[in-house]
Write a structure and sequence with these properties.
Helix content: 40-55%
Number of helices: 13
Structural class: alpha+beta
Radius of gyration: 23 Å
Order of helices and strands: HHHHHHEEHHHHHHEEEH
Largest sheet: 5 strands, antiparallel
Oligomer: single chain
Number of strands: 5
Distance between the termini: 50 Å
Length: 300
């Protein structure tokens, strides 16, 4: 999925975001027709020749050294995530290389752990496909979907697809624009880390075609890992909540993680979560009784 064109686009977006005065340069010479640093200014800051940097940005120079990439990252004032992304883009997957084998299900111990948690929790893979969730995680993020859908590979929800294409997300996230930037940034980082993943590339293509908002964000090449933070919700059952989240990465799983949410003890948000847990348990009991009635040929 990573190509020389992606590397050039990333460098141009970051070069355009900086002004000479931002990096201690004196702006002089001809009138600037476009914002940002010129190629020769960035080359000067990174300590490389203009010709070499131009070839790199145009995709004509492969396998740039770590020293060059580190110098460019410093000159462009990249974040740690952006720096890692730059390295991924500069070393695209080799043609003919077999794709990495990644687990398609969560380990039993992880599923057991998530089921035992008293907070909303969801197991996702590197594509943000949902591999499992506990009842509270299902009720928080996708209560309108079948709770058993993660167990069926062909029907697994994808958090990115839900966010950008499911109308329920517009209602669930009152700060939708800010969450959209965070979602696109996380997906861009995943795409850089897994350049050989065809299904991930197809997801990006689908979102680009079907969501103008995603396409606009993707064109800006945002890159940011979101391992922790807070999210605001306007839940259809319990109303407004602000929850902290943590993405706990699981080692040796090819990028799987557990996304867990929590509320400050004693807060109104914690009370809302308890109310949601009660509602989720009630819905689960109803579903169980309905299944039992169908199994014995009765009516519920």
């Amino acid at each position: 999925m990573n190509t020389p064109a992606d590397l050039g686009h990333f460098l141009r977006t970051r070069r355009a975001a900086l002004r000479p005065e931002d990096v201690g340069l004196v702006a002089y010479g001809r009138t600037r027709r476009v914002p940002g640093l010129r190629r020769e200014e960035l080359a000067q800051l990174a300590g490389v020749s203009v010709a070499y940097y131009t070839r790199l940005e145009q995709g004509q120079s492969h396998n740039a050294s770590d020293e060059v990439l580190d110098a460019l990252a410093r000159a462009l004032r990249l974040t740690r995530d952006e720096h890692a992304h730059l390295r991924n883009l500069a070393r695209p997957a080799r043609a003919g290389r077999l794709p990495a084998v990644r687990p398609t299900t969560a380990a039993p111990g992880v599923r057991q752990l998530v089921a035992a948690l008293a907070v909303p929790a969801v197991i996702v893979d590197h594509r943000f496909d949902v591999l499992g969730w506990n009842p509270l995680g299902h009720a928080l993020l996708a209560g309108h979907l079948d709770a058993g859908s993660p167990e069926r590979p062909g029907e697994r929800p994808n958090l990115q697809r839900l966010f950008f294409l499911d109308p329920h997300a517009r209602e669930l996230y009152p700060r939708w624009e800010a969450e959209a930037r965070r979602a696109a940034s996380s997906l861009r980082l995943a795409a850089g880390e897994h350049p050989d993943d065809r299904r991930l590339a197809e997801l990006v293509g689908e979102l680009t075609m079907k969501s103008p908002e995603f396409a606009a964000l993707w064109s800006r090449h945002p890159v940011r890992g979101c391992a922790s933070g807070s999210k605001c919700f306007h839940h259809p059952v319990v109303g407004a909540m602000e929850l902290s989240f943590e993405m706990l990465r699981l080692p040796d799983t090819g990028g799987q993680g557990v996304l867990a949410f929590s509320a400050e003890a004693g807060s109104a948000d914690e009370a809302a979560l308890r109310l949601l847990a009660t509602a989720a348990a009630t819905d689960g009991d109803r579903a169980g009784r309905a299944s039992d009635a169908i199994a014995i040929g009765g009516k519920y």
